[in-house]
Records
---
Amino acid sequence: MLAIEALQPGLVKQFAAIIAADRLGQAYVFNGLSGTGKGALAQWIALRLFCQNVQAGHPCGECAECQRILSHNHPDVVVLATEARSLKVDDVRELKAELSKSGVEGQTRVFVIEEAEKMTPGAANSLLKFYEEPVPGAVIILTTAAKNQLLPTILSRAQIINFPTPPRVQVQAQLEAAGVSARLAAITVQLTADLAAGQALAADEQFQERITRVLKLAGQLAQKDATAFIAVQASLMPVAKALPEQTQVLALLALVYEDALNQHFHVAGPAAFATEPVVAQLAASGATALSTSLSAILQAQVQLRQNVTFQSDVEQLVLKLLAV
Ligand SMILES: [Zn+2]
């Protein structure tokens, strides 16, 4: 089975039915976070259209046609992707040349532009002719994580397919399959459901350091150790200089308390830190203390967004948490 069939079974089923009924459209926009399988589904459609050995509506992935597509060597499957910041007119020229080839009547051809939001208005406009006069047999698929950045003229002429974000357990399994430790995968997946972003986060040593320091702070708080106040400046500030990092520190602290509250009530929850000893210590502090603490953390998160400085925000929070 191809990976996309496990990642987006609903969309694969939908397109299998559309192609079986010979109702594939001329233009699609695949919209969704990175890691949701947009490019892989576009490739699956190409495989399904060209495979010589389709079984129960699914391409085999092994025949000569499938192999050519999988190795990016199929002349009728053109994928445009760039590492650069933008896709310019010159970049789509080849694609346009292919599109304007008359070819055999109704010849099947698949064109994919990845990260289509990178297209300059000039590049997008140069494709508009195709949208206005579709070429029989040709399908053009734009993939994007930001469909609102595409030209309205492109969007209005395409069918927009929104890719659901996969459930966290699935992303967690994928992170582990990619070599991320089970512990780190369980934490990471609470902060992002995007596989690529999760992998980057898990590989970031600063992120791991933040986790260590947040857990240490939680330990001090669990023991009502007043040095927790000093730890804000001495321990947290150096690893949380910018707002995204500061937001992450508070999110991690919230996860610790959420896990403690869930453990107190013996219910399943995010379980990012469930096996950490500090969670058990906090869980013993009781439901009232835990829910008061969680609302204080929530308030600190709101205040951080309202431009309160991180240091004074977390210092106030620590005083509240020590007093609970
Ligand atoms: Zn095949």
---
Amino acid sequence: MYAANVHAAKLVYQVRAGEAWAEKTRPLPRGGLHPMLLKEPRHHLRVGAALLGMWQDQHPGIDQAFAGSVPHRSAVAHFGWGDVVHGTGGEDRALTARRRLIERYLDQRPAPHPTPLGIAVVSPLEGTPRVAPSGPGEDRDQGARAHRGLDIDATTGEPVRSLADGVVWFAGFDLPGRVRPQPVPPEELAHTPRPPLGAGGLFVCVRHTEGIFSCYMHLSSYRVHINDRVKAGDCLGAVGRSGVKSSGSHLHLEIHVKGDAVDPAPILGPELVIPPQDTVAHDLAMQSKKMRLKHERRARWRAHLAARKDAAARRE
Ligand SMILES: [Zn+2]
């Protein structure tokens, strides 16, 4: 298919440059796409790398050409999911699984990095950067309450790790309403009757320094006791969807500073998390919140006009 693009040990191809096209080249080993040579693994890999490079160069142009599609994160995704996609969820999950695998093979856990909070943090999940499709301030329960944390897409059973050094401050069940959460030691999790859970489900909170806490919610299980000392990166429990009403499994992460929930995304930074602002899910959530606020403003205005009309009628 690409034989006509090979000239003098070069792969020659076109990329979109605004309205025009520009020619680009990549070195290709001699013999290029000859079927016999392609059976030789070393040659095959070099040719594969050249083709991948070409597709990566061409994919912004391809994304642009398909209106109504969300930009793919990488060129290869055009093969897996087609040229028109309405979200990057599938691609993100495949990339996360790949990063986790590479981290396992390399056996290298990233070192804690400093934050403006004065504590050094690591990612609570493996295979960074992880995608967080939902952040603080979005609507929950049709606008009855605001979302307070960062939702990081994850698979049930994945290890959840402490962001930083600290002491376990809570491990147990979130209960509905304004009821105090119920602490449960991990070894009793299996045989403690499960009450109807609040939105947080099973959760763990760690106190890092005076006034700084991190909380990990919707867990399927946890392994720590209240007052346990933990280091950055220690496993606290496993991802689940306890307390979740409709979405898939994810980690709901909250960071509290002196009693206020703050946005975890800028604290973790772009190396650890792809923030909600870079996802389609967040765009859609913010659009629907805007619509709800608009409807509420209109309803308030209509009620105000009706009350004035009533008062005027009573005066007559
Ligand atoms: Zn959440």
